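Protein modeling request. Please complete all fields; requests missing the sequence field cannot be processed.
Requester role: graduate student
Desired output: 3D structure, token encoding
Chains: 1
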Amino acid sequence: MRVSCLAWLLCSVSGFGQWYQLPDFPGTARDDAAAFAVGTDVFVGTGTVGWGLRNWYRFDGVTWQWSSMASLPASPRQYCSAFTLHDAYDGHGYLFGGLDTNGPLNRLWRCDPATDSWAQMASLPGENRYAAVAHEGYVVTGLLQDGNATNELWRYEPSTDTWQQLASIPGTPRHRACAKPTCSALALLEAPILHSTALADCWTYDKLNDTWTNCPTPRRGRWCHVRVCLL
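Delivered output (231 residues):
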């Protein structure tokens, strides 16, 4: 992954089609890393180089400088899913699941950038998984212990440190999908992968009614532009 998430952020906020070179990631080159953003800072960690890693780095979006931060106090892992909450005042990043030498994981960790510390939160009560999609407390799809994909949807509630299972995607189970917010406050999944077969379907989730609706596949060339609404 390296610094692709940073380029995506700048592409989103600077205008469609505008790209900028950023300072190189100072840690070990890796893939299958996780990343989240809090305020103007972007945090990148875990991933693999031969096998899993657990170190993390912060990119300051104002000074454009990298700095190392506290490593995840758990086993090295890859294919984790990271998210922040819709609440702009939460100020935390969350790291879910992943894959370590023992197999898939279902644990949730919370990063506090203000104190440069990690805390373990409630584990997802379902099967362990990795390569899932995570967005604003929602975790959906992924690969399970047996290597099969899932279409399950779960939501994490930080106020009670609990999980709730919601309606599964009615489409094909998948992993390594992606999600984005839209101005209708729906979570959108697009361009998922099922094992080695790429899929092109797109699904919109209605948070209020806990329902999924098939939606048109986005046109090529429109991936970089993401609208974020505060509702």
